[in-house]
Amino acid sequence: MSTHKLRTVSVVEAIAEQLSEDIFSGMFRPGETLVETQLAARFEVPRQTIRSAIVVLIHDGILRREPNKSVYIPQFSESDIRDLFAVRKLIELEAVRMLTARKTLPKEAENAVRIMEVLCDEDSWDEVLKFDFKFHHELIAATGSTRLQKFYRSISAEQRLALTYFRSSHESPSEIARQHRVLLDSIRAGDSDAAVEAFRAHLDESEIFLNQAIQSQQERSRG
Which of 11, 60, 180, 209 has a CA between 20 and 30 Å from the CA of residue 168? Predict the structure, then answer.
C-alpha cells in the first residue's frame, strides 16, 4: 500500500492561502483596503495572526502597505507590467532553453494543459488562470533549480493578480489551452531556439494585452 506524506500547514499559511484565493477570484478590487478587525472576525483568529498572514501576501506582491496606511490590493501601472515581464522573460526563457536541451517535458505541465483543454466558457476566469500559471510554474520546477523557482514565485503572484483584473474578452479557455499546447509541443520538438521564440512571443502578447488594458482603464477614468 502506498502512503502519501501530507504537508503540515500553519494557521497563518492557511489564512494567507485562503486570502490569496479570495483576491485571485476577484472578491476584492484594485485599490480596495483590507481591515484587520474584519478579517480576524471572519477567520476567528487574533489580529496578530491576520497581520502575519498579510506579511506573507505583501512579500508575494499580492498586497501592499504604505506607512501609516491600511493594507490594500495593488493597482498596476504600465511600468509595473514592463518590469514584471522583463524579469519573467529572463527566468522563463532560460528555463525553456534548459528543458529543451535536456529533452525534459514535465508531466505536471502536460496535465495542466489537459485540464485547460476540458474547461469551457462557463468556467471562472480564476480557474483558467490557475492552470495557466500552474503550467508555467511546473516548467520552472522541472529545471530543478530552487533559486529559479524562488525568483519566479516572487513575481508570478503579481502577474496572476494583474491578469485577474484584466480578462481578455476575445480569448476563450479553449484558445488559451491551444496556445499552451503549442508551447508544450515546442519543447517536445527539441529545438531550443524555436521553443524560446515561441515562449517569447507568448509572453510579449500577454504584456501588450495588459498594457493596453491599463491604458483603456486610464482613458475611461479620465472620462
Answer: 60
